[in-house]
Amino acid sequence: MKAWIAKGYGGPEVLELIERETPRPGRGEVLVRIRATTVSAGDWRVRSLILPPGMGVFGRPALGLFRPRKGVLGTDFAGEVAALGDGVKGFKVGDRVLGFPGGEMGCHAEFRLMPADGRIVRLPEALSFTEAAALPFGGSTALSYMRRAETRPGETMLIIGASGAVGSLLLQLAVDGGLATTTLTSAGNRDLVAGLGASRTLDYAQTDLAALPDRFDIIADCVGATSFKTTRHLLKDGGRFLAIAGGIGDMIARPWQGRRAISGPADERREDLETLVGLAVGGRIRPVIDSVFAFAQMREAHARVDSGRKRGAVVISL
Ligand SMILES: NC(=O)c1ccc[n+]([C@@H]2O[C@H](COP(=O)([O-])OP(=O)(O)OC[C@H]3O[C@@H](n4cnc5c(N)ncnc54)[C@H](OP(=O)(O)O)[C@@H]3O)[C@@H](O)[C@H]2O)c1
């Protein structure tokens, strides 16, 4: 099979297309033929070693001293079951599936093994492979942070960076959950976020965030443009700042006058994949797709993610 590996840290040029043996499923494993995957912000961070402020010191020890330990990047896949190991229940060859190895990566390849009881679920015909692959990275992160923030219907949420992979799904999940949403994006992304259900849209070029008269129950910074310290006065008593792309400062931030920061790695759960598929099939959320690249164009796809300008997910079709 073909796979893209990162030969070192750096720009998209460190990626190399290699041939390696197609793995065979062991007991309890499913072999998936990948039909779509994404280049996520997670892939960009691991490939480039560009980490949130203050996290750089942990980068190489955690990810690999000279090159990414994972080799094959790629956090998610949609595809078909190609073979089953002994003892697998719940899947058969030919089943359409969606998977989210997340931080375990390994999806920028033609095939990937998954534990059948891992983060892999059946994918209904109603969603194309391309659409489905755009859900797990942003959607799991959004669900995880909403759970940790214990969001409630009727609360107000400011979403900074609602046009990205995480932000576009967080916005829709918040709207679906009955929250009143305000988004902060560029003017060019205003129509996108209004179409996803934002109650109110603000243009970041025209808005002095610190001077806003509003007070929010939740502020979600999906791009690392602010911090708990610079926005905590915009939170109501009991308010939560979601430092989704936060650095060390937000991780160690102490609660302030009843307001607190929530930070760190998002949970990666199989049941969240089930939830996302159910909501998408039911028309309650929709994947936002920035662009679709061929497998051979992996470097171009990475370059698009590196731009920091993508809207939703960059998908690779195989
Ligand atoms: N904690 C976790 O476990 C976790 C999980 C997943 C992701 N993350 C992090 O979350 C971040 C977002 O990931 P993503 O995939 O959603 O990113 P993304 O899709 O690459 O974000 C790009 C979008 O952000 C917008 N943007 C850029 N700067 C902005 C600003 N100052 N204000 C408002 N919008 C801005 C861009 O719109 P314009 O072009 O209009 O500016 C673009 O649409 C990454 O840093 C990633 O590492 C963390």
TrEMBL record:
A Pfam family recorded for this sequence? ADH_N
Which molecular function GO terms apply here?
Answer: oxidoreductase activity
**Matching InterPro entries:** ADH-like_N (IPR013154), Chloroplast_QOR (IPR052733), ER (IPR020843), GroES-like_sf (IPR011032), NAD(P)-bd_dom_sf (IPR036291)
- Annotated ranges, domain Enoyl reductase (ER): 10-316
**Name the UniProt record assigns to this protein:** NADPH:quinone reductase
